Amino acid sequence: MRYKILMLLISLILSFGQAFCEPMTPNPLISVGISDNSFQRYYYKENTFYATKKLTIIEKNTGRIVKVVEPNIPIKVLIKNNLFELYDEKNLIEKNIQPPLVLSTEKDGFLGIYNLKRAGKPALYRGKIELVKPKCKENMFLTNNVLNLETYLLGVVPNEMPVKFGLEALKAQAVAARNYALRPREKKYHEFDVCDSVACQVYFGANTESPLATQAVNETRGLVAFYKNDIILALYSSTAGGYTESYENAFLPKDGKTYPYLKAVPDNKKTPTLSNEENARNFYKSTPDTYDNKSVYFRWTREWTREELEKVLKSGLSAAYKSGYASPELKSAEDFGVLKEIKVVKRGESGKIISMEIITDKTKFFVEKELTIRRLFKMNGKALPSANVIFEQEFDKDNNLVNIKAYGGGYGHGVGMSQFGASAMAEKGKTFDEILQHYYSDIELVLVPIELNSDFQNNIALYDFFLEKKHANLIIENKFSYIEMKVVINGKEFNLKAQPSLSRKYSVDISQYLTQGDNKVYFFYPLDNNKSKSVKVFIELYGIRDDK
Fold this sequence. Notes:
Layout: H1 2-16, E1 29-33, E2 43-44, E3 46-51, E4 55-59, E5 64-69, E6 75-80, E7 83-87, E8 92-97, E9 101-105, E10 111-118, E11 121-125, E12 128-132, E13 141-148, H2 149-154, H3 157-160, H4 167-182, E14 194-195, H5 211-218, E15 223-226, E16 236-237, H6 247-251, H7 277-284, E17 300-305, H8 306-322, E18 326-327, E19 339-347, E20 353-360, E21 364-368, H9 370-376, E22 389-395, E23 401-408, E24 417-418, H10 419-427, H11 432-439, E25 444-447, E26 450-452, E27 460-467, E28 473-477, E29 483-489, E30 492-498, E31 506-509, E32 517-524, E33 535-542
Parallel strand pairs: 1-14, 16-24
Antiparallel strand pairs: 1-13, 2-13, 3-6, 3-10, 4-5, 4-9, 6-7, 7-8, 9-12, 10-11, 12-13, 15-25, 17-23, 18-21, 19-20, 20-21, 22-23, 25-33, 26-33, 27-32, 28-31, 28-33, 29-30, 29-32
Helix pairs in contact: 4-5, 4-10, 4-11, 8-9
């Protein structure tokens, strides 16, 4: 009987567009830590906020409305004795307020932070702002922007990639950014999901949104890159230099972790592996035709005299040692001696230096990891653009090192998608899925999986998605017991019977029921089923390519 009532409700939803019961969607809330203008500081003693519509301030744990403020009126929040105090332009409003605080505004309004700029504009944010007291800091608070994933991406995509790169490149960026938000490489802060700087991915908020980037997010909504039943770690960087690198070679993870989908990929299949000196030298001292050619960092050079490089190395080796990727420790500049030679010990497939030796007349320093190497060989205080670099060393007649010149290619770690490469592929007519499947090996593109069970809050799911190529497979993973599910695809109802199976998936081609453009698919898990059992559902839009 309850199931019939639910079906009646969904009929009303489909007919009148009013949701009586909120279905689950692949659009979770995420929390973004907002930093200062230098993108260095996340902890604050005070901050001043406003809203473009009425601002409502709520004590989160009690639900008490502390204050409702008129539009554009600044409210200063400071913390004393680990409790909040609020001030308007003239007076104390209230003190001894328990953290956390929630700041919200009306649906079409934005939240602002005074004196905070993003891309030269006042920083404005959708969603809510939560002021959170961290456990590790006394009398400090974090300013977190809480909003749903798809809205968050509106403020990421146009700031991570130039809008001039075009729609297909932006769509590839939207998928990669969605993946990264759901699965970041590392979590530096416990009080929010992702930071707003290049340390995570750049998020500048609502005032930097772009119509074309918004279209890219909307037309890929819910879509993620998937490898063997898991959301991938979708790393990306500005410019790979024509050849991406394998994850383990670039990051040297302490646990030895590898990702089969993050492996070295040349833009030209005929390019030989660059792990030996001759191939690396030939590649990075030339300008082969690759997807990265238009980047100003496609090829670059740096040059030092021996004395200049000695000064740079003496300054940087201490930090390199502290990172755990250089030895022995340089305790004083006098212990360095005279630089005699730079020797590459090992390269990755892209020619990226994995380990090297710095040889002096007093000792031999061993350095590894691409970021450590980039930061060590600085020029005018700036790190090397990448570790895709070969060194040419000039010696005098007495075999003393005189001059060092570096020839390199690329900008960033070079793992996963190259953003300039994505732009070039789009210019050549490649679609966003082809771009992603070039840079991430053997992946599928699927809508974020949803897990259903018979709990009333978790038994209805909705996929609202955009379909460009009219092909899709409905996937049900059911390991426990026989399930009979109702599915409604664009208003047409189906009864699916899923037998229990330990195999990866039960797949149904639903292409004929979909349209090019917007689609809606509802799932209904039976309420009378065992609540401890669940099924995972998702929709595969782009399968693994076999033409690479």
